[in-house]
Amino acid sequence: MLTPTQSVKQPRKLLPMPGTEQGFVYGGVRSALRLEAFAAFAAATAVYACNGFSWPIFVLLFLAPDVSMLAYFAGPRLGALAYNLAHSEALALALTLAGFVGGLHMVATGGLIWIAHIGIDRALGYGLKYPTRFGDTHLGRIGRR
Fold it and tell me: What is the pTM of this model?
């Protein structure tokens, strides 16, 4: 038992790493995520090529997920939600799998293009958006500082 003159030792407070207090990754973790994203882009593109799918369709649909950015005209909260749904790897993978399992080549084509798009976006540092503003992503801030 402590006497009135003794004090309880306070646990040391850990300081947040730079950027993490705002929800961003940094350093080696950020680099690993970007490398992983580039691997997803390369794999999706390779599977696309090995299946002999149409390259004009690839070029035509590659930027289609970015149409979701138009939701930012309704505000950053709705914009971030639309952008994040359009850049969800889970949805793109599910579509691709459904296309291959169901023998629906156009669906598989769309899914692979979608995965490739998400992969190159993330490899370039365009992460999932926070509802604060377009430039706040899980991979760090983008755009002008």
Answer: 0.83
